[in-house]
Amino acid sequence: MNRENHRGFKFDWVIIVLFLLLVSFGWLNIMSASHVGEIENYFDMSQLYGKQLVFLGLTFVLIVLILSVEAKFYERFASIIYIVAMLALVGLFIFGKDVNGARSWYGIGSMTIQPSEFAKFATALAVAKYMSDLQTDMNTLKDQLRAVAIIVLPAILILLQNDAGSTLVYVSFFFVFYREGLQQIYLAIALSIIILAVLSLKFGIVITASIAALVIFGIYFFRRKKRASIIQSVVVLLICISFSTGVKLFYEHVLKPHQQNRISLWLRLEKDPVKLERMKKEEAYNLIQSEKAISSGGFSGKGFLEGTRTTGKFVPEQETDYIFSTVGEEWGFLGSTFVVLLFVALIVRILILAESQKSQFSRVYGYGVASILFIHFTINTGMVMGLIPTVGIPLPFFSYGGSGLWGFTILLFIFVKLDSNKINEW
């Protein structure tokens, strides 16, 4: 028996317990959101909670397989796994099945498989493999562009499938790049881009340009080498104005009407009361019903299977993207806080373990896992509560669906396996 097998059961039980709590509580909420009539059989395959229970059973088989494989396998074959995942995404354009306007699924009998859910862990492995290569230096532009290309490829393929929500997840890898030495200037630029985009849509190009000018020339007056920086300041201001103009054109001529309306509702851009009322009945219907469900839960909630809006099916997609509204209505502020704390604890635990890894590959992959879970959790809960624009993105381990559950499980338990092997990496 080799050393790794001898130590095979020394996995991080904190992560495993948190995982079990999340999937168990998630299944209870899927049951609340999807059941019709009296619940007589938990394995009723005509009900979504029955199907999800089968998915959960297969998930534990998947976990055993993941933990049984040698830890070095994931590093050794990271590139091949990534290539297979990209080919699966490309294949959707030929063999894919359209569901809700997105060509993101393969149809297998009565089941569907969504490759984008598995592309996340494949990309995390590929990023970890590339960044842990001895020849990779994230301080050089060449290696930075190559690392970005690894995450841009799946993002573009998924975007072309009309799945903008899943595309946003790949932004999370920039947290990983930052941890591994990416200069702070890139984070500053990214934050500036977001602020400029919001200001441009909310206040227009002129006001945005004026605010940018005040900030840029304010920085200029505090710099010592003013002769050299005046030209830089003017150039930066021109770039800001050009970007602001580009954002407006992109919003008005590239985004689809429903995407424009979602952003418009979020930023309160629409002033026409008639059009605003129509938008609330169409694009904002899910959000409004979700907010009502959450607010009706109060402090302690209405109780399991007692949510009137949940059982009445007022919130569309409540068992998938809007599953958190069920938590809010039936479990109230206390239950919602419990879920938030579970996710925070899981993400923090992953980050702590990632920092303790002896190999860069394991550390980078751990940060990739934490970043993906963080983005999913933040966007989903923020969307359901109206804090950010509506984006179709599932809540990890909670939302109904086999592909999402299995994709997140593989993502997490590969790291559990890598962490269990860290002593062997000395």
Structural class: mainly alpha
Q: Regions with pLDDT < 50 over 5+ consecutive residues? A: 1-8
Helical residues, percent: 55-70%
The tally of helices reads 19
Work out the number of β strands. Answer: 3
Largest sheet: 3 strands, antiparallel
Euclidean distance between termini CA atoms: 20 Å
Rg measurement, Å: 23 Å
One letter per element, helices H and strands E, the order comes to: HHHHHEEEHHHHHHHHHHHHHH
What percent strand? under 5%
What does the model show?
Residues 1-8 have low confidence and may be disordered. The chain has helices at residues 3-6, 13-34, 48-68, 71-76, 78-95, 115-131, 141-159, 164-168, 173-179, 184-203, 205-221, 226-253, 257-267, 273-281, 285-296, 308-311, 323-355, 360-384, 402-420; strands at 97-99, 102-108, 111-113. Strand 1 and strand 2 (102-108) form a beta hairpin. The protein is mainly alpha-helical and 426 residues long. The chain starts with a helix and ends in a 6-residue tail after the last helix.
